[in-house]
Backbone:
């Protein structure tokens, strides 16, 4: 079992501070994540809103972190690919792989429907068709030194060479998120990418097993080994010395996170997940170490995950509490799952 660190920021300026203060907190968190042995730090692209908008460019943050860390891998989760030209993304991420010493993981996806497609001149109605072409272009541009393309959305008649070439060969590990559509999951499998899921947002977390099953069917269709790929999801986490202390510290921040999340919706979504719902159903790891160990074990059995990214910083949670929670998780929860 691998454990990762994850940032999907819900910005609370009164607590998080101005941009320099917020980024300094992330730097400190990633440094601790590396010290504690977490595998990868993931950063997601969002725009213009308190929900994630303080991180419009994961690549820029990763470039800075690559110079401040030595071991921990650094990943995009995700680059919203339909908002960008795939060849520019291929160049930028290849350069980032070099700058990080071959520590880059690349997650790409469509993003949410509220991701300002119109502002960036993209059409959400064609996003799935477009991203399938873009992913193929990324893989081709990274592996073919004389790459050309003639597709529905993009043309590159004259062969080009993406420079620099990625340090990791044939290219950095690729990750793509799945929603609830099994055919989409099968397509991800056929690309050979690793799978990202979000089981705690599903009406029933056991549906994650169906998503994984469809993904594995896609891998088999492409003649790829299931055991060579990984399935990951992120979960909110707060570990404290007692259940009462966890509630006192985390409940107000979780409800702030939920309120900010609700504000960015443009269509009806699932009902709010209150603190008690998150705790009782194992959708979040909020509690003392023993509670978190037991709920994590049950969640892994229900969802079929073999990798978990941990959202430690949410809803304006104070930095000292974030760091303390990270330490408790690494010291008293994670060791039970290392084997």
Residues:
């Amino acid at each position: 079992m691998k454990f990762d660190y994850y940032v999907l920021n819900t910005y609370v300026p009164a607590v998080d501070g101005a941009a320099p203060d917020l980024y300094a907190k992330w730097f400190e968190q990633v440094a601790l994540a590396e010290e504690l042995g977490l595998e990868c730090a993931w950063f997601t692209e969002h725009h213009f809103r308190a929900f994630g908008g303080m991180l419009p460019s994961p690549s820029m943050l990763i470039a800075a972190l690559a110079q401040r860390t030595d071991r921990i891998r650094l990943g995009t989760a995700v680059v919203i690919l339909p908002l960008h030209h795939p060849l520019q993304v291929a160049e930028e991420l290849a350069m980032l792989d070099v700058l990080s010493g071959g520590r880059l993981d690349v997650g790409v996806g469509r993003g949410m429907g509220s991701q300002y497609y119109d502002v960036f001149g993209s059409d959400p109605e064609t996003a799935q068709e477009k991203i399938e072409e873009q992913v193929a272009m990324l893989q081709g541009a990274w592996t073919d030194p004389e790459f050309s393309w003639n597709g529905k959305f993009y043309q590159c008649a004259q062969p080009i060479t993406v420079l620099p070439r990625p340090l990791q060969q044939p290219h950095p590990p690729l990750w793509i998120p799945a929603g609830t559509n099994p055919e989409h999951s099968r397509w991800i499998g056929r690309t050979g990418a690793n799978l990202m899921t979000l089981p705690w947002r599903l009406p029933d977390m056991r549906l994650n097993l169906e998503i994984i099953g469809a993904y594995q069917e896609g891998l088999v269709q492409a003649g790829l080994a299931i055991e060579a790929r990984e399935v990951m999801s992120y979960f909110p986490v707060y570990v404290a010395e007692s259940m009462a202390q966890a509630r006192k510290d985390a409940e107000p921040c979780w409800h702030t996170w939920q309120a900010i999340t609700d504000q960015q919706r443009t269509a009806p979504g699932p009902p709010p997940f209150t603190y008690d719902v998150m705790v009782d159903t194992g959708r979040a790891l909020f509690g003392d170490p023993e509670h978190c160990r037991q709920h994590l074990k049950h969640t892994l059995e229900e969802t079929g995950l073999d990798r978990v990214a941990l959202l430690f910083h949410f809803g304006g949670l104070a930095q000292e509490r974030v760091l303390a929670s990270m330490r408790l998780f690494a010291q008293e929860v994670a060791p039970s799952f290392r084997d």
